[in-house]
């Protein structure tokens, strides 16, 4: 567990951006029962946490992607983080829409991007990885050299890890599910025995046997 992972985990827990409720699971749109609720947009309205997140993103990008030339945010959650981090780093930024506009120039990539430019994608969280890989593919099709992704939080789900590997794209997250689960137990947000339930969910979200265990 790195210092950044621990700091960001504590920050996200403190503002309930990542909120655990193993006794009363949330229901996702897919119908899956989940012991965790994630809303990293809450970091934008918590200035101290936002400052930690954006500085950690900048530090992580400098350390892992030193050749970066442009930051590209995912629409919509990654846009603000890409903009603030790009400001800190003195870099240009843009963002990728979920689809091309049906008017004007019909852009899907907003902001100037030249073929061959080295890009890092900024995402707020990664679960199964599908949406962020779509962004990577759009940028690659436009001629960008995508160095990788930086995200605030990742579940570390098998499906997501496999998709990223298959797409040959690197992701570095500020913190991850297991770290937050263990800190949540240490700081009494949840019971220590709940950690096993959380990990069981992470390992196989479609298996609900952890509920009531």
Layout of SSEs?
Elements (H helix, E strand, L loop, with lengths): L2 H12 L3 E3 L5 E2 L5 E2 L1 E3 L8 H18 L5 E5 L4 H11 L3 E4 L12 E2 L7 E9 L3 H12 L3 E10 L3 H9 L4 E6 H10 L7 H10 L10
Parallel strand pairs: 5-6, 5-8, 8-9, 9-10
Antiparallel strand pairs: 1-4, 2-3, 6-7
Overall structural class, as computed from helix and strand content, comes to alpha/beta
Order of helices and strands: HEEEEHEHEEEHEHEHH
Give the overall form: globular
Q: What distance lies between the first and last C-alpha atoms, to the nearest angstrom?
A: 27 Å
Determine the fraction of residues in helical runs and give it as a percent range: 25-40%
Per DSSP E runs of 2 or more residues, the count of β-strands stands at 10
Main sheet overview: 6 strands, mixed
Strand content: 15-25%
* Low confidence ranges: none
Strand order of the largest sheet: 7-6-5-8-9-10
Count of helix runs: 7
- Mean pLDDT score: 94
Radius of gyration: 17 Å
Description:
It contains seven helices and ten strands. With 213 residues, it is an alpha/beta fold. α1 packs across α6 and α6 (177-186) runs antiparallel to α7. 37% of the residues are buried.
Keywords:
22% strand; alpha/beta; 38% helix; two-stranded antiparallel ribbon; single chain
Give a short synopsis of this structure.
This protein is of the alpha/beta class and 213 residues long. The chain is built from seven helices and ten strands.
